[in-house]
Write a structure and sequence with these properties.
Blueprint: E1 6-9, E2 15-19, H1 30-35, H2 37-70, E3 77-79, E4 82-83, H3 84-122
Antiparallel strand pairs: 1-2, 3-4
Helix pairs in contact: 2-3
Length: 127
């Protein structure tokens, strides 16, 4: 969970102090959060999303050098003078951008759930 660092500056722009949150009256109990069912569910959701996506990404990227080094399957022309290796390479760029956009959208929901868990802890929900 990301922390927002808030720096307090004096009139001459020298940094006087740095705090981890705007509300210093409450210390966050990370042990209680880590043991909560909500946090465990969030970790499970993140792992179920990130692991398959990462494996898919790595398999697709590792496949190109393997196919070009040990086979001639991608040397065949797809259309005109453009071979399948170029088509595969361009598809990797498209895949990378697509996976990045999917991850950013999903990470936003994970961040919201993490903020909800933090707010519940600040309200005294994990005592």
């Amino acid at each position: 969970m990301a922390k927002n660092l808030e720096s307090v500056y004096s009139s001459d722009n020298n940094m006087n102090s740095t705090t981890l949150s705007k509300d210093d009256s409450h210390e966050t109990n990370y042990t209680a959060i880590a043991q909560s069912p909500e946090f465990k569910e969030l970790k499970r959701k993140k792992n179920r999303f990130i692991l398959p996506m990462s494996l898919f990404f790595l398999v697709c990227y590792i496949t190109l050098p393997i196919l070009t080094s040990y086979t001639t399957i991608l040397n065949v022309n797809a259309f005109g003078d453009v071979s399948w290796v170029w088509v595969y390479s361009i598809a990797l760029f498209i895949m990378t951008w697509t996976l990045s956009m999917i991850y950013v959208r999903k990470a936003t929901t994970f961040d919201q759930e993490a903020n909800d868990i933090l707010e519940k802890e600040k309200a005294g929900g994990y005592k």
